[in-house]
Specification:
heterodimer, A: 185 residues, mainly alpha, two-stranded antiparallel sheet, 66% helix, 2% strand, B: 189 residues, alpha+beta, 8-stranded antiparallel β-barrel, 16% helix, elongated
Chain lengths: 185, 189
């Protein structure tokens, strides 16, 4: 399998970025809900610290992903109505935007609460804003609203992929699978 | 006779004043709280953050030429610790950390001063959360044109030596043990 995209399928690098982000994103929802249920204490602090480290990782991967998308043309979509094509494009760019906006709002809300973010305790990131409890609360609400939007877009994205795979049987899903059968390079 | 008495009283007064000025004590300074800062920096999850104490008092007697009679006595209201996040402030002031209800004041006292590099070293005692430990504080003392002075310095404490962080908080995996305390005090005569 080639590193870069072909006419038939995604390359190994974009595939790796895609599935890594899927894995980390699932981790994020688990960590966030675990932290939510914990009382104020060291466990909650630890859970949120991990959530922030994973979030920063996703931010880096999402930026790479967008750069790759802009530089390496993805395989063309199978034949479908124009409105579906439009929705697919919107969904993809919506997902990219949220994958970047989520960590950024999280990072900013941490800064506002004077909880500077470190990446796995290895690198401390600069604060994006000064300390402000009002700003922290506002950003927390935005962060949560964006999480719901992201979940909705992911659901749409997954349902569409499954529809193509099992209803249309056009091999769309296999373009993003390393063992996909559609078109050997 | 009135005249003679008065003269004697004046002479005694003058002598007493001279004695005080000559070496009984270094001059006393008055803290300007609104122009002074007492800050601390700790680490959580590997990231450094800062906070401050809004309430503190300082009795400072200091003279560069008379270190022997210089003296610091600083009282910090532990319940005024602020980090910009209410829940953390609550935990800090609570029983597991400062336990401000029971130990409202932390006190630093020093009478042992020496010259150190560009500035000075005070070997004092900090009493925090009921625990007294020797604490060295490095500082600089700068006389200002308006007759006042600026006293700046810092020291690094082990929070656990003073029992700041009980129970699960004794772990240093997520909250570091070292806490840097720094001050920038404006003094006037």
């Amino acid at each position: 399998m080639a590193w870069t995209n072909s006419m038939q399928r995604y390359g190994s690098i974009p595939q790796l970025l895609h599935w890594l982000v899927v894995l980390l994103l699932a981790t994020q929802f688990v960590l966030a809900s675990l932290a939510d249920d914990l009382p104020d204490g060291i466990e909650k602090l630890a859970m949120l610290a991990r959530h922030k480290s994973v979030g920063i990782t996703i931010l880096g991967l999402a930026v790479l992903r967008v750069a790759w998308r802009l530089l390496d043309r993805p395989p063309p979509l199978p034949p479908m109505p124009a409105w579906q094509r439009g929705v697919a494009t919107l969904t993809h760019w919506g997902l990219y935007a949220l994958l970047i906006a989520m960590p950024l709002t999280g990072w900013t809300m941490s800064s506002a609460a004077n909880y500077p973010v470190s990446w796995f305790g290895l690198v401390q990131l600069p604060d994006l804003v000064g300390t402000s409890e009002d700003l922290h609360e506002t950003l927390e609400e935005i962060h949560e609203a964006l999480a719901s939007s992201l979940l909705a877009l992911v659901a749409l994205h997954v349902l569409a992929a499954l529809k193509h795979q099992f209803v249309d049987r056009d091999g769309l899903l296999s373009r993003m699978l390393p063992w996909g059968a559609a078109g050997r390079d | 006779m009135g005249r003679r008495r008065k003269g004697l009283t004046l002479a005694i007064g003058a002598l007493a004043w001279l004695a005080a000025e000559a070496g009984v004590a270094a001059p006393g300074w008055t803290l300007q709280p609104s122009a002074s800062e007492l800050r601390f920096a700790a680490t959580q999850a590997g990231a450094r953050f800062e906070g401050r104490f809004a309430g503190f008092e300082a009795e400072i007697r200091f003279d560069e030429r008379d270190l022997a009679s210089s003296r610091f006595a600083v009282t910090v209201r532990t319940g005024t610790a602020e980090t910009g996040e209410a829940r953390r402030d609550g935990i800090l002031r609570g029983r597991d950390f400062f336990w401000s209800e029971r130990y409202p004041d932390a006190v630093f006292e020093a009478v042992d001063f020496s010259v150190s590099g560009e500035g000075y070293l005070a070997q004092g005692t900090l009493t925090l959360r009921g625990v007294a430990r020797p604490v060295p504080v490095r500082f600089t003392f700068e006389r200002l044109a308006d007759g006042g002075a600026r006293l700046t310095g810092s020291t690094t404490l082990s929070r656990l030596e003073f029992g700041v962080g009980q129970g699960e908080w004794t772990s240093t995996e997520w909250i570091g043990d070292a806490v840097e305390v720094s001050f920038d005090l404006r003094l006037s005569r």
